[in-house]
Specification:
This protein is α+β, with helices and mostly antiparallel strands. It has three helices and eight strands. Strands 1-8-3-5-6 form a five-stranded antiparallel sheet, with no helix packed on it. Strands 2-7-4 form a three-stranded antiparallel sheet.
């Protein structure tokens, strides 16, 4: 199969860590044709991030958000504050967590562990829709 690339638009979400595995997979029906390959996801934003983590217990998402807020608090004396007190902390969190993932594909499915899911970590209080470029390659 040749390379495939598309941009997925995720609905706006409130600040926090959100499980988006199903939304990503529903937007990529061509994955079903891949026996062995790679899925690369790249978030086109600087104030949100992508990660893989626990997909069963929602308290993990709450605790992850709490931990990130401790690492980059809003009340620190940032220079970059023209877009509000949540903006610079959002950039720091995105830099720490990252904006891309590469996931192996096997048998038409991403090879995620039993308890793994894809998260969008939204670091702004009032974010717009987020866009992710998904690139697929395999046979």
């Amino acid at each position: 199969m040749p390379w495939t690339q598309r941009t997925l638009t995720l609905r706006p979400r409130p600040r926090g860590c959100h499980l988006i595995t199903a939304e990503i997979l529903s937007g990529l029906p061509e994955l079903a044709k891949i026996k062995v390959g790679l899925l690369h996801l790249f978030l086109l934003h600087t104030s949100a991030s992508l990660t893989i983590n626990e997909n069963a217990d929602s308290t993990v998402r709450l605790d992850l958000e709490t931990g990130l807020n401790r690492l980059a608090p809003e009340d620190a004396p940032y220079q970059h504050d023209t877009e509000g007190p949540d903006d610079m902390p959002a950039h720091i969190k995105a830099a720490l967590v990252g904006t891309d993932l590469t996931i192996p594909i096997s048998g038409g499915q991403p090879l995620l562990g039993t308890w793994q899911g894809i998260y969008l970590c939204e670091h702004r209080d009032r974010a717009n829709a987020r866009r992710i470029v998904a690139t697929i390659h395999g046979e």
